[in-house]
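I'm stuck. Please check this protein.
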Amino acid sequence: MATAWRERNPAARVSAAKEALVLNPECAPALLLLAEEDATTVCEAEQLLKQALKAAEASYRKSQQNQHQGSLAEGLHRKTMKGLMFKGKDLLILLWL
């Protein structure tokens, strides 16, 4: 997904997001990017955003369970939280529009 966010070409961004979903069907950032840039209808965008929210919540729960299990798990939890804070804000804005 890092490649997709850095890419300037919209078609390449969408392609990279779809590849990320093949590797991890619960990739919230990929679902968010597809909702923003690939959805053709409002209903499709809403469905992708709801999937992204569920995936983000599941990711948070997993990282929270491992939060105090060592420095590696702590780092993963921090990374998950940082991603949720930034992507979650965008997600909420899009869901309320």
About this structure: Residues 2-96 form one domain. The two ends are 25 Å apart (CA to CA). The mean pLDDT is 77.
